Amino acid sequence: MKLTVRQLNLNYGAAQALKNITLDISKNNITAFIGPSGCGKSSLLRCFNRMNDLIPQAVITGQILLDNEIDIYDNKKIDVTLLRRRIGMVFQKPNPFPKTIFENVAYGIKIAGEKNKSKIEHIVETSLQRVGLWKEVQNRLNDLALNLSGGQAQRLCIARSIATQPEVILMDEPTSALDPISTQIIEELILELKETYTVVIVTHNMQQAARISDITSFFYLGELIEVNPTKKIFTTPANKLTEKYITGRFG
């Protein structure tokens, strides 16, 4: 297993966001988290690269193992900066840095200590090619990334994430702010990425989960209700709550 979650609880102050979550995330799979707003999907996603550390009142108990060996919450053994290099994240709203297209993709490489200019240029080009953006931007790499369209900006953010060669890519509703054509491009890209990376995606779009994920996890009120192969979830769910949600009877 790439990520192993055991008896995980997350509280924001007095409010419990996650309740006793146990879950396995398989390597080179796309795992979708579905469920109503506020059910804990994004909270769990942020646990995987310790983004919740940035919230002062967040308290986490339980265990998350990376590659069945490293407890990512063992502060004596884990370097959070290195962890976030291994587990990248793409957010709901495209968030290019106020820098050039080139500098956006090169940023993480430089932070990691790479100083060889030709190597940086090669990684930037390769990353942009992987996300299908190179032909569109190769002649304007010095333009401000903030001028890109929404779909281009999100692909740039994915390129920025894969430039540091992570093992896992977390995606928090990566297409919710995009038009249908851009959404299709991103979905096709995600399907290609699973050949190299483990992908975990939070989505409110049932059709998207059905189209691109291998495994679907359904959350409700901070609890993990059901985990199954996506086809089973959408045809013969094991739990009545899951069935109610995917058929639109609540949520």
The helicity comes to 25-40%
Order of strands across the biggest sheet? 6-7-8-3-9-10
Mean pLDDT across all residues, rounded? 96
Structural class, by secondary structure, is alpha/beta
For the record, what is the CATH homologous superfamily label? P-loop containing nucleotide triphosphate hydrolases
List the domain count as a whole number.
Answer: 1
Assembly level: single chain
Question: Total strand count, please?
Answer: 10
Give the C-alpha Rg.
Answer: 18 Å
In sequence order, what are the helices and strands, one letter per element? EEEHEEHEHHHHEHEHEEHH
Main sheet makeup: 6 strands, mixed
CATH hierarchy: architecture: 3-Layer(aba) Sandwich
Strand-residue proportion: 25-35%
Q: Which residues sit in consecutive blocks of at least 5 with pLDDT less than 50?
A: none
Your description of this structure?
This protein has 251 residues and is of the alpha/beta class. The chain has a single domain, classed as Rossmann fold, CATH 3.40.50.300. It is built from ten helices and ten strands. The protein has helices at residues 41-48, 80-86, 101-111, 117-130, 134-137, 150-162, 180-193, 206-212, 230-235, 240-246; strands spanning 3-12, 15-25, 30-34, 58-66, 70-71, 87-90, 168-172, 198-202, 215-220, 223-229. It has a six-stranded mixed beta sheet, sandwiched between helices. The chain has a four-stranded antiparallel beta sheet with strand order 2-1-4-5, covered by helices on one side. Strand 4 and strand 5 form a beta hairpin. The radius of gyration is 18 Å and the shape is globular. 41% of the residues are buried. The mean pLDDT is 96.
